[in-house]
């Protein structure tokens, strides 16, 4: 049995899409278990770039893909993505893509409220993508959300939308100063989308478990990163769901005993999009070098990513929270050309060095990084396919990460392409 959970260890954008695509070659099912279309996974195959926001990355390998019950789904975005991939020659028929009937629907009013809140907050805004993710999860927790099961029942849909808009329209008009959402137009729009998506909707938990019982190998694909987790991240500068590996079970409907291992994807340096604390951030020419060479722009938003040294405090926290069994280091090639590299091994706060990631944002904002310096390398490593052929300083850098994390490096990515990868340990 080989069933692996793939999680980001930093603040997202670690390169999970490429790694899920790579592992999918040897898997049978790929399951997305949380988040929404606020995540963007980029894959490059034979020089062609593919970006997915909801459809699991395994679709390029013609593997059966599932959008689990823990995901919040904008039906318009999903249909657009199905069409986008279809235009690129990818089969996204119901044979290859299944959508949980328990997944929550992102409604038009969720997106409107999301945007209105950010505008009202002004300079104190969180930096949400405005795609309705948070408001949809709020309705789920309040037990007034609309599931795809409800989406297929016109009477249930009408009753739920009518009730929901009593509250949402009060907020839109009286608090945000916006126009009300039209009830009938919303229902008609949703019924049209439901008809198009109906062939994809099923009890995905049953299908996934039946496959696992028959020996099918599964990759569980997470979105965002550990430090955007709503419980364990830099709250409130977080996403609206649990991004840690434990949520793979709840968000897909499988038992924890069926998980073989957890792979943590970590960029060879650290990045973050949007607001929030970032102790190892660089504001000098090295940070700019990483940003330019690494093309650090968000796949979903296009926003510039903040860059900094590799943060071991962040990684060790992710190792503990996720129970990582292996590391995947991405974008190692970006560091080529730097004379020296630094690993942030701790934070100095009020005259003391701390090595555990604090929950207090004020503490994080006033931390300075404590670094260990290692020599860099000049070689272009994008053509390297064997670990032994890496420059000695690159191997020393990876070895030190392993030592400080207490977790082995299983895979190293040296470029965006599927083939630009060094597999140290095979997982299937």
Automatic annotation (TrEMBL):
Q: Name one GO cellular component term.
A: cytoplasm
GO MF annotation terms: adenylosuccinate synthase activity; GTP binding; magnesium ion binding
UniProt: IMP binding residues: 13-16, 38-41, 129, 143, 224, 239, 303
GO BP annotations, alphabetical order: 'de novo' AMP biosynthetic process; IMP metabolic process
Binding, Mg(2+):
13, 40
The UniProt keyword set, sorted, is:
Cytoplasm, GTP-binding, Ligase, Magnesium, Metal-binding, Nucleotide-binding, Purine biosynthesis
Amino-acid positions noted as binding GTP in the UniProt annotation, renumbered to this chain:
12-18, 40-42, 305, 331-333, 413-415
- Record's superkingdom? Bacteria
Its UniProt entry gives the catalysed reaction(s) as:
IMP + L-aspartate + GTP = N(6)-(1,2-dicarboxyethyl)-AMP + GDP + phosphate + 2 H(+)
- What does the note under cofactor report? Binds 1 Mg(2+) ion per subunit.
Major place of residence: cytoplasm
InterPro entries assigned: Adenylosuccin_syn_GTP-bd, Adenylosuccin_syn_Lys_AS, Adenylosuccinate_synth_dom1, Adenylosuccinate_synth_dom2, Adenylosuccinate_synth_dom3, Adenylosuccinate_synthetase, P-loop_NTPase
Q: Which residues are responsible for catalysis?
A: 13 (proton acceptor), 41 (proton donor), 140
Instruction: Cite the binding residues for substrate.
Output: 299-305
Give the pathway.
Purine metabolism; AMP biosynthesis via de novo pathway; AMP from IMP: step 1/2
List cofactor names only. Mg(2+)
Q: How does it assemble?
A: Homodimer.
Function statement: Plays an important role in the de novo pathway of purine nucleotide biosynthesis. Catalyzes the first committed step in the biosynthesis of AMP from IMP.
Do you know which HAMAP family this protein is assigned to? Adenylosucc_synth
Q: What is this protein called?
A: Adenylosuccinate synthetase
**What is the scientific name of the source organism?**
Desulfoluna spongiiphila
Gene that this sequence comes from: purA
